[in-house]
Design a protein that fits this description.
about 150 residues; Clarin-1 isoform X3
């Protein structure tokens, strides 16, 4: 492949990787990004609601990582409510799910930024030169010191 074509491919890949990281940050920064429909089971079972009557017992809820809001309908009209992560959201969403979303989102952001950095370095730098000298020695020592799948 010609040198100019490599630079273009690596630049495009780096920009796409950076846009992915920005997309994750934007999704996490959006306050209400999960939408749900909730049903007031008790009220619906009490009057044996079905069809159009069931709409009187169906509410909506929106939440993000740290707070949410919604409208509850149990046949008596709209009742708006708000909740935050402590302690209300933890009753609705298990803590492990919440922590995993945050953890994997952070990992995704870090990995896409590292990928963007490598793509840009390959496009504009000379990666083969970094393996010579002390930096290459440190890099190879670090890679050889990583534990393997077997734990050895």
């Amino acid at each position: 492949m010609p040198n100019q074509q490599k630079k273009i491919i690596f630049c495009v890949a780096g920009v796409l990787s950076f846009v992915c990281a920005l997309g994750v940050v934007t999704a996490l920064g959006t306050p209400l990004w999960v939408k749900a429909t909730i049903l007031c089971k008790t009220g619906a079972l009490l009057v044996n609601a079905s069809g159009k009557e069931l709409d009187k017992f169906t509410g909506e809820m929106q939440y993000g990582l740290f707070h949410g809001e919604g409208v509850r309908q149990c046949g008596l009209g709209d009742r708006p409510f708000q909740f935050s992560i402590f302690p209300d959201l933890l009753k609705a969403i298990p803590v492990s799910v919440h922590v995993n979303i945050i953890l994997f989102s952070i990992i995704l952001i870090v990995l896409t930024m590292v990928g963007a950095a490598f793509f840009m370095y390959n496009a504009f730098g000379k990666p083969f030169e970094s393996l010579h000298g002390p930096l290459g020695l440190y890099l190879l020592s670090f890679i050889s010191g990583l534990p393997s799948k077997d734990g050895v």
